[in-house]
Structure formats: structure tokens, C-alpha cells
Amino acid sequence: MSWAGRAWAYCDAMRVLAGLDGALLDPEAPLLRADDLAATRGDGVFETVLVVDGKPRELGPHLDRLARSAAMLDLPAPDPSAWERCVKAVISAWRGGREMALKLVYTRGPEFGDGTPTAYGMGLPIGAGALRARVEGVSALTLERGFAPEHAGRSPWLLLGAKTLSYAVNMAALRYAERQGADEVVFLASDGSVLEGPTSTVVVANGRTLRTPPPSIGILPGTTQGALFRAAERAGWTTKVERLRPDDIRGADGLFLVSSVRKVTFVHTLDGTPLPNLEPRRALHAELSDLYESEYRT
User: Fold this and answer.
1) Mind listing the domains of the chain with CATH numbers?
2) CA 277: distance to chain centroid?
3) Which residues of the chain, if any, have pLDDT below 50?
4) How many CB atoms lie within 10 A of CB 259?
5) How confident is the model over 14-52, as pLDDT tens digits?
6) Does residue 93 contact residue 100 with C-beta atoms inside 8 Å?
7) Alpha-carbon span 158 to 200, nearest angstrom
8) What is the C-alpha separation between 91 and 18, in angstroms, rounded?
9) How far apart are the C-alpha atoms of 32 and 124, rounded to whole Å?
10) Are 208 and 230 contacting, i.e. CB atoms less than 8 angstroms apart?
């Protein structure tokens, strides 16, 4: 029996899983065929949307990025209205608290199927580690990612800048960091350019200026970073999208890893060395976190 393209949903006290028509499914029901290319090759794309008090944050930019990633993988263009229906179904069924991480998954489907993609949305609670990082900050290592910025334009098969399901390297980097006593990673290109975290966007602050690396060097355009920059600009900050070097992140007034689930997280230790002026960094983190939240206040 093929599950490709089928609209299904699953929910219990802390999880909700929905397909593109919003139908609900028994929690014990199978969801993927064994030969689905998501499982056998990581051949698909995904997005993670933060939902707070029943309202998804940056849903439009997330769906735009899902479509961009799908195009890079030659997947059929996602139907925005179907995904919006899926999102609504998950949110309506959620009973797990004020916040939820909503993962949207879109795969090439079964290897020997009819070519219909597999698609679903899954609501999950926010992990304790992410909640702790929002408050306490993180330590990070800089690690080489293994490509040069110019590869983004000349080697499209590398899928640089696509949010694919092939996150094995990202997870391996985080496990390596953990073995070295760090929480997080800042990836560097082979020429030393600052890229991104395994699941986050890099932002630095100097005075009243925020800077982040450009997607053109082979990284994801950040949805949460975009919201933070909009709010900062309204408050009189200057924002810049430009290349950063390791000295830029070490010498900044503040170094932040920004993502949907962890929001604005500050880095207090880099490559084993505590960054100076911890209390001003904490104050800056509080200010930027408040600016980010201001995007969603009514």
C-alpha cells in the first residue's frame, strides 16, 4: 500500500502530524514506505516553523524557502494553499502548550512509486535544550564546512543553500562539538568566510549595526534573521548582509545564532575561549530578543 501523496495526520497529547488535506490518522499507523527516498537517500526538503499561541511565525517566508529548496532538487512545486491547510490542521489539533515546532517535510516519495511526492506537517514540543539555550546562551566551535563560497554558483548539484533532509553532516558536526565540550558550531568556508550554524543563521552586532553573511555564498536565507532585522531597522539599527571573517565574529560586541525554535541565542564562548564583556553581551541579547518579539506583538 503506497503512502506517497496521501494526506494523513497524527496527534496525541504532545505531537500532531498532518497531511495536505488535514485528515487525522491513528498515532500507531505507518507513515512512510520503506523505500521512500526520504529514508533511503535523504532526498527531500523541509522547514521548521515556530508556532506561538496558535500563530505560525514567518509562515510565508518558510513556504517560499520550501519552494526554493524544492526547485533546487527538481521536485514538483509545492502548493502553498495545500501547505497552509496542513499547517492549520496541525495547529488546530495541538494541545501541547504555548509553543510548538512545526516541521514541514516534502520528499521525492517511494523509489518505485508513481512519482508522487510524500508531504506532511508534524508538530512537536520545543526541546529543553533549545529553551535553555535561549536563556543561558551557548558555546560554539568554528569548523570548516568543506566548500568555497564560489561553489554556490558554479556547482548547483551540491545544493548549497537548499534546506534538504540530508542533515547527516550537520548532525555529525554538532556531535563533534559536543565531544569537544561545546554546544554549537559556526561553519567556515574553505577561504575562511563565516557561513552559518548547522541549524541557525549567524548574526553579529557592533554598536547599533547588525550583520549577517549573504545567502549567495551557499547558505540558507534566515527567516528568523529576517524578522530580527526588520524589527531592528524600525528601532533605528543599521542592518547589513555581507561577508564576515572569523575576526568579525570574535571581535563583535555580540555573536548570535538565530533560528526559528531557539529564536535569538547568544554565544558566550568561541573555540574554547570565553568572549569578553559577558554582562554587556547578556544585555544586548535581551535587547535583541525583545526586538524580535516585537514583530509579533499585537
Assistant:
1) 10-126 (3.30.470.10), 130-294 (3.20.10.10)
2) 28
3) 1-11
4) 22
5) 789 999 988 876 656 778 899 999 999 999 999 999 999
6) no
7) 19
8) 10
9) 18
10) no
HEC per residue, the chain: CCCCCCCCCEECCCCEEECCCCCCECCCCCCCCCCEHHHHHCCEEEEEEEEECCEECCHHHHHHHHHHHHHHCCCCCCCHHHHHHHHHHHHHHCCCCCEEEEEEEEECCECCCCCCCEEEEEEECCCHHHHHHHHHCEEEEEEECCCCCCHHHHCHHHCCCCCECCCHHHHHHHHHHHHCCCCEEEEECCCCCECCECCEEEEEEECCEEEECCHHHCCCCCHHHHHHHHHHHHCCCEEEECCCCHHHHHCCCEEEEEECCCEEEEEEEECCEECCCHHHHHHHHHHHHHHHHHCCCC
CA-CA distance, 294 to 70, in Å (whole number)? 31
Amino acid 23: pLDDT: 82
b or e along 185-212 (b: 16 or more beta carbons within 10 Å of the residue's beta carbon)?
A: bbbbbeeebbbbbbbbbbbbbeeeebbb
Task: Count Cβ atoms below 10 Å from residue 150 Cβ, excluding itself.
Answer: 13
